[in-house]
Amino acid sequence: MVASSDQLQLEKFYGDSLAQKYFEDLKDLVAIKSVYAQNIGLQEAAQKLVKLFEEAGAQVIFDDTYTAPFVMAIFSSQKADAKTLIFYNHYDVQPADSDQIWTVDPFTLDVRDGYMYGRGVDDDKGHITARLTGVQKYRQVATDLPVNIIFIVEGAEESASVDLEKYLEKYQDHLSGADLLVWEQGIFNAKGQMELSGGTKGIVTFDAVVESAEVDIHSKFSGVIDSSSWYLINALSSLRGQDGRILVDGIYDGVRPPTQRELDLVRRYAYIEEDELRALYDLQLPFLTEDKDHLLERLFFEPSLSIQGFSTGYQGHGVKTILPCQAKAKLEVRLLPGMEPHAVLAKIEKQLQKNGFDKVKLIYTLGEEGYRSDMTAPAILNTLKIAEKFSPKGVAVLPTTAGTGPMHQVFAALNVPIVSFGLGNPNSRDHGGDENAKLADYYTHIEMIEELIKSYE
Description:
Layout: H1 4-15, H2 17-31, H3 42-55, E1 59-63, E2 70-75, E3 84-90, E4 110-112, E5 115-117, H4 125-141, E6 148-154, H5 164-170, H6 172-175, E7 180-182, E8 194-197, E9 202-211, E10 217-218, H7 228-237, H8 260-269, H9 274-281, H10 292-301, E11 304-312, E12 322-323, E13 326-335, H11 341-354, E14 361-368, H12 378-390, E15 395-398, H13 407-414, E16 418-419, E17 436-438, H14 439-454
Parallel strand pairs: 3-6, 3-7, 7-16, 8-15
Antiparallel strand pairs: 1-2, 2-6, 4-5, 5-17, 9-13, 9-14, 10-12, 11-13
């Protein structure tokens, strides 16, 4: 059953011809399988955006110097002293392969029961069309924009924003000195409150490989010969305690601790309920901590080590009695401000050698640093006031999220206040099967963008 407030937003959405026009464009965008990790669809998605922005009347820069083209669309104000508002988004998406369960084809935008489903509807293509709709709705009734508006859209965000810093440096003159940058996305939390945040964790991803012999060995020797699989399992186990803390010397050195304000914001606004997480993911294992405050501090203000995948030995039907000669794991560390990806990986390598596992080879794959804001910049405070009009159940203000994005790269290049908010929900399933967003929240985001522009009048 659709809530009355959602029903009102749905009625406005379906009755808004401009919103419907750009929703059709969103369908076209979702249909483009633009996956950086697989090097497919990037040119097609970027060119679609170029056409979309040009038809909207923007001055568009298309730059394909690097693998993922960079798209910048500029809507200029005629005011000589106009400030600048930047929207950062990305057109690349996560793969949606056979390892995920989808109700319909992931690259077909499907609408049912007040929700839209499809890869990228929340992360992050839906935000692009919603924000463009908001800009155009304002321009429908006003003779001029009160603020310069610039969209910057990259195509490698899901792969640690490869080459983004090069594009930012190239176009720094256009982007520096902006009043505010609105980040890619955000959610309405389980309480129905709009979340506004100002940070992301960083990340370093890497492979760990062990080769123990030239060929697989008969398992009759398992009592006297070590295998790559056991060796790697033991090596990785030595890096993390039973409580989930990372057991690497010096890894916490230089980490910027949270301020009291940042701690207070998370304790007040972060809505994390253990029972709801258990139900949402059907969790079968216990949490690594049972203390609520510690859970929040660890989620937002501590690094974490994860095994993304582990492969070794025989995976076919039946039995094959071997000691595998090779084992490989894909890992990640979520980083805090003050942790540099390559330096973290070097400390892990040194720790493995100290622990007696010098046969483990580490291969760096991706990395980006973390960023955190105390949310006190005037332009952010203005945005918080506007958000209250569109979130009757209140707003949740967070200095960071537990997720990762290139916010540090953008801030380092542009030195602009950054705030993130959007149209997602706690079960939007970004990166998973049946990624979704509520149509009512999609239209609310359109209205809020229009109101944000009005605030510069």
